Amino acid sequence: MRVQLLGTGAVLSLVAVTGVLQAPAAAGAGTRAGAELPLGAPGLPETRTTTTLQPGVTLTRVVRGADAPAQPWTVEVAVPGGQSSPDPDAPPTALKDRASADELTDRLRQEGFEARAERVDTPATADFGGGTLGWRVRVGTFTARADADAERARLVAAGHTGSAVHTGWDGDARDRGPWRIDVLTVDPRLFRGSLEASYGPDLERREKTSELAAARGASAAVNGGYFVLDSRSGAPGDPAGAGVYRGRTESESVGGRPALVTDAGGRGRVVRTAWSGEVVGRDTALELDGVNRVPGLIRNCGGTADDAPTARPLHDVTCQDPDELVAFTGAFGPRTPAGEGVEAVLDARGRVAEVRSPRGGVLPAGGSSVQATGALAERLAGLARVGERLRIAQALRDERGAELGTSPSTSVVNGGPELVRDGRLHVTPAADGMVHADNPSFYYGWAHKRNPRTLAGTDAAGRTVLVTAEGRDTDALGLSLVESATVARALGLRDAVNLDGGGSTAMVAHGELLTDPSDTAGERPVGDALLILPRRD
C-alpha cells in the first residue's frame, strides 16, 4: 500500500490495511462503528489511511477491492423507437421499451453484430418506486477498451450510435471494485479555522476547485454545488441553486431542494431551503424571481408558477419565463446581463442612480440593480425614479418556514438529492427533479449508473464530513446514487446531501489535487467550492 504524506505539517495518524476497519466518523442509526463500506461482497480487501491536515481536520483515503479482477467493456447502442414503440418517432436513447430493444437487437444480429437486449432494474428510494427503467442494447464483450472502441466504430459505420462502456459502471452489487473514496472530517471541538464556500472573483465565471483553494490558502477543499455550464442556460459559473457566501445571499434556491449550510467553527447541517425576494419602493412591492442570473433562464427549474415547462425542480433542464424580475449585486460580474427590458441601477445607499433600457452594464461601486423583462419591464420603470430609494429584500427559509439566520461566517452550497436523514437512508430523486417522467434514460445515466460523486453532511458527534468518490475509470468505479447514500451512512453521517459530481468532483489537500479528473480535459472549472481554511491569527 502506498502511503502519502500531504504537504508540510501533515501527520500520519492511522494506517489500516485490510479487513473490518474503523470509520472516520461516528456511526449513525443502522450502522456499526468499524464496519466496512457496503460496496460489493462482504469481506473485500479494504484499506484506510488517515492524515491530520490541521487541528480538527483529518483526511481519510479508503480503497476497497483493490485486488478485483478486470471487468469487461461493451458497446451500448442507442435504441430508436421501434414499430411497436409508444413513440416510434422518438430520438434514439439509452433505454427504450422491450419491443424497441428487441427490434434493434434482431437488426444488429442480421448485420453481423453480437447484440443482446438487457433489462435495467433500479432500486426503490424514499420517493421513487424504482423497478424496471427500460431495456438497453449492447454489443460484444471485450477485455480492452481499444477493442470496444473498434467495435463502436464498426457500428457507427453501419449507421448506429453508441458508446464504449465499462461494465463495472453498471452498479451491479456483485462487483468486486475497486473503489477510491476520500473523506474530510472537520471536528468543531478542535477546529480553529473556518469552513467557507467560495465562488472566486465573481459568480459568472468558473474556476477549478484547486484554483479556488490556492487563492485562499485552503488546507483542503471539495467542489460545491450545481452551476450553469452552458451559456444557452445562463451565465456559466452561476450557481443553479441556493448560494450564500460570507453571509450574503447571492443565488436563489431551486424549489425546496436541499443544501449544505455551514457556520462558525465548521459546523454544518443539511437544510431544505426556499427563497423569496422583493423590490420595494414607495408604497409598492414587486416580487423577485431570482438573484444574480440571466433573466428568463432558470437552470434546474424550481422557480415560479409561470415558468415553463414546470415550476418544480427538474435537474439539468433550463426552464424559461419571458416575464421576470431579477436582482443583481456586485458579486455577479463586471457587467450585468444585456438584453431587452429595463434595469434600475442603485447606488451604494440604495437610491436609483439610473434607469436604463436596454438592460445591462456596469454597476456603481457597492451598488446593485434590478432587471425586468417582458410584461414586468413597464412595472419596474414605473416604480424606479432617479434619486428615490428602492429596497431589495430577500430571505432563505427552511422546510418549516423559519428564516435561515445568517452571519458573515455562514455559507450555503446547493445540492440534491438528500441521501441520509436522521441516520436513515432517505434518497429523494423525485422531489429534487432527478426523475424525468418522459425520459428514464436520464435517471439511468445520472442516478442508476456509477459516477464520480461528491457528498456532504454531518455525523452524530457534530462533525462536518465531505466525501468524494472517484469514478468513470477502471480502477475507480464510482457510486450510484443509492450506493452514495449507503456509503454516507456507513461513514457515520446522520444527515447527508449529494453535491455536484461527475466531472466536477474534486478534492484538494495542501495544494494537491487528490481526485483523478474524469473529464478528458482534466480538472473541470466549477461554480463554487467548499474551502477548509487554517486559523488566521
Q: What is the compact description of this entry?
A:
With 537 residues, the chain is mainly beta.
Features:
single chain; globular; mainly beta; disordered N terminus; nine-stranded antiparallel beta sheet; 36% strand; 537 residues; five-stranded antiparallel beta sheet; 6 helices
Secondary-structure map:
Blueprint: E1 11-16, E2 46-54, E3 57-64, E4 73-77, H1 98-110, E5 115-122, E6 131-142, H2 145-157, E7 162-166, E8 179-186, E9 194-198, E10 207-208, H3 209-216, E11 220-223, E12 243-245, E13 248-251, E14 258-262, E15 268-272, E16 274-281, E17 284-287, E18 290-291, E19 297-301, E20 313-320, E21 325-329, E22 336-339, E23 342-346, E24 352-356, E25 359-361, E26 368-372, H4 376-383, E27 391-397, E28 411-414, E29 418-421, E30 424-425, H5 440-448, E31 453-459, E32 464-469, H6 481-490, E33 493-498, E34 507-509, E35 512-513, E36 525-526, E37 529-533
Parallel strand pairs: 18-21
Antiparallel strand pairs: 1-2, 2-3, 3-8, 4-6, 4-7, 5-6, 8-32, 9-37, 10-36, 11-34, 11-37, 12-13, 12-28, 14-15, 14-28, 16-17, 16-27, 19-20, 21-26, 22-25, 23-24, 23-26, 29-30, 29-33, 31-32, 31-33, 34-35
